[in-house]
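Q: I'm teaching a short session on how sequence maps to structure, and I want students to see two examples side by side rather than one. Could you give me a first protein with its sequence written out and its structure tokens following it? Keep the formatting plain so it prints cleanly on a handout.
A: Of course. Example one:
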Amino acid sequence: MKHTFQLTFLVALACGLTSAFSRANEASTAVGLKLFSEQIEPVLKQHCYSCHSADAKMVEGGLRLDGRELARRGGDSGPAVVPGKPAESLLVQALRHEGGLEMPPEQPKLTAATIAHFVRWIELGAPDPREDAIALADQWPTAVRQHWAFQPIPQTVAPDKSAGTGAVDSFIQTRLAAQGWPSAPAATREDLVRRVYFDLLGLPPSPAAITAFAIDPAPDAYEKLVDRLMASPQFGERWAQHWLDVVRYAESEGYEYDRHVPDAWRFRDYVVQAFNLDKPVDQFVAEQIAGDELAPQDHEALSASIFHRLGPVRRNAGNPDIALSRNEVLTERTDIIGVAFLGLSVGCARCHNHKLEPISQRDYYRLQAYLAATQEKNVPLAPPAEQQAWEAETKRIKAEMDALKLVLRTKTGEERVRMQAMLDAMEDSLPPMLATIPATFNDFSNRTPIHVLRRGVWEKKLEPVGPRPPSILVPSEMPESPADSSQPRTELARWLTATDNPLLARVFVNRLWQGHFGAGIVKTTNDFGTKGDRPSHPELLDWLARQLIDGDWEAKRIHREIVLSETYRQASSAPSAIEPARLDPENRLLWKFNRRRLSAEELRDAMLAVAGRLNDEIGGASVMTPVDPQLVDQLYKPSQWQIAKRAGEHDRRTIYLIAKRNLRLPFLETFDGPALLSSCARRESSTHAPQALELLNGNTSNELAPAFAERLVAETDAPLGPAQRNERIVQRAFELAAGRQPTTKELLASLLFLAESSLEEFALAIFNLNDFAYVR
């Protein structure tokens, strides 16, 4: 009874204290609100709003004082108002003319009484009745809010079509007609078949395939060819590379150690398969963002979630800097979501409100909040017994290494070097990794609380935020989600793929258009913001986006619309088009087709195919090929580069070669392969001397030239005289490499060359032909 009385008394006391505190807080708030309305707001309006409000011609220092949250967030220098802490509030320092701050500028300080009012108001918690009722999106200029990319995708109707003209052509020809420009004539069948093979498969057509299409009289011959190519498993290999560029796919973490992410190649295979199966784009996006939340037991969905582990990671920060390293990881993951799925450079708002786009710093951290619980997890695929044995052996070796490290600290000069070598040898003796999926999972017990960070500095935390899409893209009244939402990334994926999100479909179809024409309708494919390139054909872009959405997000329908168009089938030269060439040198209006150089991967794969060496095996672990030992020696651990033992593996398609950040293959680097550190929006096509040197003297071309020569001999092995045989060899070389017969001039030059040089040298020369390296 006594204990019951004591408990009752304590509960009553606690409730009474809580009630008393509540009443005290309410009283303080009431006093503070009265002080604000009578003393604070009038001063702000009279002395501050001219430079620090929506009405200012230019907001000084990024600081707005015409809203509660705006004042608390502050500007470039930090928070102007920190409730309860006048000493940390920059507004008070500015009123006192301290720390190099002056408010009002170039005028005497306000009275001591006025400054005291501000101090007292902040001590009371800075209560402020002004809701930023004008949401940030509403404070941006009208022109920004009406930017084309932020508007809903309309139900666009194609212009009137003439007989036989498709919807794509009707948009293109309407623009050309307005200029009074004709389209280029149709490409030859030989050029077209080579173009569409490289475009859809990334490989050259065989001479037999070229001939079959060239003589096919059927009116739907081209349509059947396109359908056959898009049904090929090599279609996914070609188009996966475009997406891997965008998401900066790599299988190692970069920086000094460049540690490998075990089995990261499963993401590459996921993307290849997704393109081959025509996985709906909304599902494709959702699985990468939230595969582990959507289907935590499904290996395909978990492989998609590797998306979050593709960025470079610094692993040498040490224990004191674990939080800093975590911040860098979250930053990487947030930035790639912005450019890949929204076409917006959200990363520029990490340290301050975006200087060029309507993205606030708060928007940035709200987007990051969706990822707050995201952690790495390697999901084992081996049977439990094998997994246990692996763990035991790994634990034993690591224990020995830890003991050696303790001894190492006591040693100094040659002993430490010798013992370090022993440590390296022990690490190399660790059992090879078992099959895993390096997936992403939520760990809510270790969720990172997300705050707006002053100038992006981890230690300088401002107000906490919860998940929410960028303000410019959602209604102003939309609240933040709870910071501890149970499926935050599913929520993000649901918003990204919602039909009222104006960006995802536009951004995605623009990437498809770029893949076919070399430049997007919006040339800046990663930047759809107000400072990005304006679309050359905005109605066409919206029509394609609407087709994607209304067609259940099936991308192959869009590919087909594009490659079947007359615009795509134009010749790449229009000799009489003098005015278009002068007024539209970049061919933005598509008055002809753009001749293009093969990408680095296409060049290497074409060499393998022409030489008869291409290993067309699909999928699986990535391959390390022989490279210059000096390059391997520059790695932190040269033992990371383990050359595939089976020689045939070296002839796999280039997409299956390992993507290692600190060792880019020289051939790929020379021909503009991406750096793998950040999103590659578009492959450049540079022209410089090292490319000619690589094709003439490089290992790749010189190793494949003999195989090409052997193929030429084998395929012209007939009872012919030497002159006739050489002529047939030249013809076959041009058929295989350029998809055509040699001209009379080329034939004579080749025969003269063969009279003085070896067939291997001739094969190498063919690899250096413009018509081998370019499609037209």
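Q: Perfect. Now a second example for contrast.
A: Example two:
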Amino acid sequence: MPPVTPPRDDDGGAALELLVHGVGGTTPQEMLDDPRTVRITGDETAAVYRRSEDAEDAGTDRSGEPGADRPPGRPVPEAYVWCNLTSGNGSRALWLLLLPFMVANLAHWMQPTTRGLTKTVRTYGVLVRLLALSLTVLLIAAACEVALDLTAWQCAGSSRCSGDKSWLGFLSTAQDGWWAQPGRRLAVAAVVPAALTGLLWYLSNRTWSAYESQRPLPAGAEPDPDEPTARPALGMPGFWYGRRLVARLRAAHTAAGFLTVAAALATAAARHDRRASGPFLEAAGRLLELALLAGAVLVVWVVCRRGRSESRLDVKLDRAVTTLLPGSALALLALTVLYAAWSRPGWVSDGRLPGDRTFGIIVLAQGGLVVALAAVALTMYRRVPDARTAMRGLGGPATAMLACALGGVMSGGVAQRVADWLDGAGTPGEPGATIAGPPVLLTWQASAIPPLLVVLLALGAFLAVRTWRARRAMAGDIEAEYPDAEPDLVRTRRIARIRAMAALTDRAPAILGVTSAATLLLGAAALLGAWVTGKVPGRAAAGGPDFVASAAQAAQALGSWLIGFGFILFVTWGRRAYRDAAARRTIGILWDVGTFWPRAAHPFAPPCYAERAVPDLTWRMASWTDHTGGRLVISGHSQGSVLAAAAVWQLPPRTRRRVALLTYGSPLERLYGRWFPAFFGTACLEALSHEVHCWRNLWRRTDPIGGPVRVKGGGQGPDVDRDALKDPLAYGRTREQPLPAPVLGHSDYQADPAFGRERTALLDRLPPCAVPRQRPDTPLGQGSSGRSSG
């Protein structure tokens, strides 16, 4: 093999630019501006690419650099493409059904900045994990409502409903067959929610093997004397390796799903046995209920017992929990199926199963957890207040409330649509209907949607007026930025409108706060109305004033339609994404933002792509600098800047001193710093600026996502933030720009001449080329050290 010759820039040192794209993904050809690219390392899911001409001169191992036709002073570019981690094959469309789980997982990472509040931090984590567990129970309970209550209990128990449904023939009471008894019908229908639980376990286990099992870069054997004693959380050795916790949570949530199905079966059969059966079945029912209660307590204990371990690489697995807990729950479900299928000749299905009580308990528990989470978050925020933190530390509880609302819409929507479909031309629960319909509480929750939309429309109108006023106030400042151009009112208004719309991102805390508060209040009113009246809103208001009754009936009808439409929209969008790559890429953008964080609260959430991407970037930077001793600029756009910063935090100190960070269109402070202050807050970003050798951030006022990082340079160099880039580059037509220059907003930062100048300045600030290691066969970073955070 010929010797590898590192490239030489104009100062005689090896130089590399590692490009990381943002949300939505791209191709290596677009990133490298060359149709001929070669994969240097990686696979079809995520890989590093170079131009063919750069790779051909690099030698067989492709870790060196070319230098023949490269312009002087320009580093060799490499592109890290990670978009297939979130928007690859058609199965990603199924992740839409996991949206409430993803939102609940985000709430875990939104905790305020803390110092010395270890017990409070653990309490916050426990509350979020319990709320996430309630979402799993809610989803499986909704499946039980559809399969057991609406289909097997109500429709199959009514000859009018099941008469025209051949697929229900063997369960129908009109056939009077062996399966016609209510307990046996319920036992058959239990296959549906049990299979859904198994599917969630399978998806989580498959992604767990592919994502959480990626080993990060090992820490060095010898501690660096210059390394800070207290590392930022994202710099901990085990932060991007949550294999043990996800395995425990997956076992607990799977067991909770099986226990929920078993409880739905056992409760229905035991209620009949206490009234009409003999002592044997009554005793068996009570024993099963006690066993289910003990199983539920064990699941809650497993969820509360252990959180994340980040200060060290935790490679252990709790085999007793991950194997025995779901296995025992499945065995208990099998016993419950046998108990429910026992012959009960006199049992007749009538009315509804006790779904109102089940859903009421879930909603009440979720509301209590959200309120408790808000109290803990406020305690944490008051200890270390930060004016830049969104919603004064209440972002996590508000997001948790949003997750509960999404879960309610999905569960209520599927129940309403299935009930309407089963009842045919009638309206479930109304005179002449063939079935009683879904629980009253779900109808009350659907009726709360129209008032919520009124609140959101009023908020939208307020923000529209504020945006219009801000646009008018910007006109003078915009024209002052282009003193040599002829003022153009239309051009000025267009630029001002784009800037004003981009500033709406900073209003997101108000939008989320109002939405979550209104949802909490309306949800509490719905729960109270369902429990007090026991009737749907239209009937409950029938004896009151006419306008109240009319409003209640309108809200009930419109809410039922909206919640059903929301469910259909989910299904339609998922079906389209399964078939259409473009739609799947759009969904991938949503996952790019929502699945950056590890699955610390909900194991059934879509997997964290950063647990693959961050180790990829860290290994590539460490291996290249270790082999060549050269200088490296990691260049991240949008979400890629977040991945770049997280990867730099994971580098050993010797490598970090040879790396420069260039971010553009970056949400590091504007979004992540405000919403995730404990991990990207002001103190964390300032620490990053001191640990990396040099850092520069580019931003525009027209960018709705990126913004300044607000970190001062101190005595080490200039401030991290450059002055806002002009956008557009030219106000009107010039000799250099004969056609109108576009407003770029969040895209094409590399087209600005300032980009090349800032990249060159970063390379100039890096230390000269070091001597490469003489033993390239030595594994990187022997050993690992650290303590578990419990």
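Q: What should students look for in example two?
A: Point them to this: The beta strands are 15-20, 37-42, 47-51, 76-81, 631-637, 659-664, 694-698. Also worth mentioning: The radius of gyration is 30 Å.
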